Amino acid sequence: MAKVLMKGNEAIGEAAIRAGCRYFFGYPITPQSELPEYMSLHLPKAGGVFLQAESEIAAINMVYGASGSGARVMTGSSTPGIALKQEGISYIAGAQLPCVIVNMMRGGPGLGSIQPAQSDYNQSTRGGGGGDYRLLAYAPASVQEMVDYVQLAFDKADEYRNPVLVVGDGVIGQMMEPVEFRATAASDLPPKDWATTGTGGKRPPNIINSLYLDAEELERHNIHLAEKYNRIKENEQRWESVGLEGAELVIVAYGTTARIAKSAMENLNRQGKKIGLLRLITLWPFPEKGFAELDEATKDLLVVEMSMGQMVDDVRIVNEGKRGVHFVGRSGGVIPSTALVEEKILEILERSE
Amino acid sequence: MAVVFERTKGLTPISTHYCPGCTHGIIHRLTAEAMEELGVLDQAIGVAPVGCSVLAYKYFNCDMHEAAHGRAPAVATGIKRVLPDKFVFTYQGDGDLASIGTAEIVHAAHRSENISVVFVNNAIYGMTGGQMAPTTLAGQRTTTSPLGRDPAHAGYPIRISEMLATIPGATFIERVAVDSPANVRKAKRAIKRAFEIQLEGKGFSLVEVLSTCPTNWGIEPPNALKWLKENMIPYYPLGNFRDATKEEVSDGQ
């Protein structure tokens, strides 16, 4: 299929429709409003329903109802809106319902700004809802990847009966790039025999629920969820690595920041330095397997984020004190420049010598 | 021998957790009987709230969702938009619907979502141990209004039916009580009519049912029914507040 030039947020909408999503419940918020706008025009044409909810809270609870009734359903928002959805996300995870949630991150805390940011790493990987739950979280770095991972997200949500988060910084939502909508591989997904569609007099009632008043019953439920999360950890880690072999220093980044980091890496490698890049594609599960591929020669890791430093904590955990872990970031909607990343790398290399 | 009374098929054959004298049992039965009589049990999806009736998903003999506190109308909206031909209802208490869930109920009515709501008003938070509800009467003592609700401090009790009846999308709004056999029969008729309106595709319907909470009111069951009649009904008058299926369309519309 030929490539088309599309804005990130609109490409997400088209990818979702092509993945069989027929329901979208959302609330306007910058910088992701082009997504509900796209859905409001195109979902009805595909025989689906777009509904603008009265709040982010109502939107995520509509997702809960629609998903529980067996539909492929999506919602999208940005940082403070995602915060409002967190209780609902916890219920959806607890009731083991599939859905896809898009977060076009903006600056925080509080109302923050409408500029791009990556300060929802913690919100994406730790969540804000109560309880022991996890979300599979993809962080694409281009509009094409956004399309591919939105499509994959629907299959993974159904496969694991779990909400899947697709995280972009505001840049990816707003920029235009050529994209190709590839046919998704035929998936071998189990039937949704748990969905509430009316018993039809043919089966006992289905119940969508996250309440377990008996302590041991809830513990059994949590053990079951943990086993599922371990399966996700084992099977779904994704990352991209560039030039790890012989690298003195490896940059760790994701999303738009990884593209900036890549430019910095290329500039320095032209000058004879040995710099590599490890780009996270899944924020959760954290790609520990990617870090296992690091070369013995690598003495330092530089984490670059559009935040004051959140992912860097997980890098420290996986690093187990083996290498130097450094951080550079910009915040508030300021995008780190390649010059800033290069400067920081040179400073680290100088100190190591 | 002729059968004169049977348990409705709309309820599962398990004992409820409700306190002795609580009228939730009656309201469950009326809701279930209405579904059975309308032949929609195998097409029904119900949404249970958070509050005393949190376990309603165990009692209604049909597909059920358990919603977050106050969000049942949003959950029901999601279900109904996916399954517009199925029967979708919520069962909510006054803390759930009239306090934390006011946005969801108002906007579900505003969109005229084609769902039905059974709203149980017992003027108190039961499940959490008798705290003041938005519907608690002026002067009524609760664990968070130990000297009696002071309207100057906590506001006057909210009249949900009157408020929702002002919304054009609210097709059917009626308040009933279950304090006497005659009122129970009227409540049944109202609930059945509300459900019929959904089945006719005519939009949002809600029945507010005045109910007792002997345990947290601190009143024995027979006197609780009397207390409801003497204190709640004067402030929460019974009757139909809106039936758009009977109203004539004005020239302006």
Number of E strands of chain B: 7
CATH architectural category of chain B: 3-Layer(aba) Sandwich
Give the class of chain B from helix and strand content and strand pairing: alpha/beta
Task: Please report which band the strand proportion of chain A falls in: under 5%, 5-15%, 15-25%, 25-35%, 35-45% or over 45%.
Answer: 15-25%
Largest interface: A-B, 40 and 36 residues
Low-confidence spans of chain B: none
Q: What is the CATH class name of the largest domain in chain A? A: Alpha Beta
Radius of gyration of chain B: 17 Å
What oligomeric arrangement do these chains adopt?
heterodimer
Write down the overall mean pLDDT of chain B: 96
Question: Would you write up a description of this structure?
Answer:
The complex is a heterodimer of chains A (353) and B (253). Chain A has 353 residues and is α/β, with parallel strands linked by helices. Chain A folds into two domains: 4-235, Thiamin diphosphate (ThDP)-binding fold, Pyr/PP domains (Rossmann fold), CATH 3.40.50.970; 240-352, 3-Layer(aba) Sandwich (Rossmann fold), CATH 3.40.50.920. Chain A has helices at residues 8-18, 34-45, 56-68, 79-94, 121-125, 143-160, 170-174, 215-235, 255-270, 288-292, 311-319, 338-352, and strands at 4-7, 23-26, 49-52, 73-77, 99-105, 136-138, 163-169, 176-179, 207-208, 239-242, 249-254, 275-280, 282-284, 300-305, 324-329. In chain A, strand 14 (300-305), helix 11 (311-319) and strand 15 form a beta-alpha-beta unit. Chain A is globular, with a radius of gyration of 21 Å. Chain B has 253 residues and is α/β, with parallel strands linked by helices. Chain B has one domain (24-242): Rossmann fold (3-Layer(aba) Sandwich), CATH 3.40.50.970. A seven-stranded mixed beta sheet of chain B has the order 2-1-3-4-6-5-7, sandwiched between helices. In chain B, strand 5 (170-177), helix 8 and strand 6 form a beta-alpha-beta unit. The longest helix of chain B has 19 residues, at 181-199. Chain B starts with 23 loop residues before the first helix and ends in a 10-residue tail after the last strand. In chain B, 54% of the residues are buried. Classes of the chains: A alpha/beta (353), B alpha/beta (253).
